[in-house]
Amino acid sequence: MRKILLATLPLLLTACVDDSASYYVGGSGSSHALTVKREQEHLWKRDAAVSLILSRWPDCQRRISLGSMPAKDVEIELFGLGEQTWILRDGNQLWQVETQTCTELAAPKAEAGDLLGVFRVEGGKLVFVPAVLSPAGAPGAAETPGAPADGPADEGQAADAAPAGGGAPASGKAAQ
């Protein structure tokens, strides 16, 4: 019995989630980033602890808890309010943070700023999907791939468009 239990232990551990996705301010490889991390402690738990890691090296780095969310349904929108102020939205929950000193600010009443993209689960992995300009190209009008659109989109646009704010997406393990 003990051998069976030991043999199945690795299978139980592989179902746990521990991943992250980053938005790099100013492009890939920048030392200024916002990283969302999800951690599911046990296989039998549906929810995962989700946190935001703010980093602007060498000045600051801080981890802020965003609470518990269903591990498979994490979807957090990122809005930019200038060079170092950000709003994150998950449904009706809003967080406002700044990366000058890597602190959480009072929650805003509503989202504002430019939609930069969405942290979401795709193919079982947490990824950052950058927003692209709408086909009309109207300032401030952005949509994320996979979101419903008002009309047909230019198929080449998503591959050619850079995220607003000059940031770049990345996925993988976060440095802690």
TrEMBL record:
Q: Where is the composition biased (Low complexity)?
A: 137-163
- Sequence segments annotated as region (Disordered): 137-176
Organism this protein belongs to? Rugamonas fusca
The protein, known as:
Lipoprotein
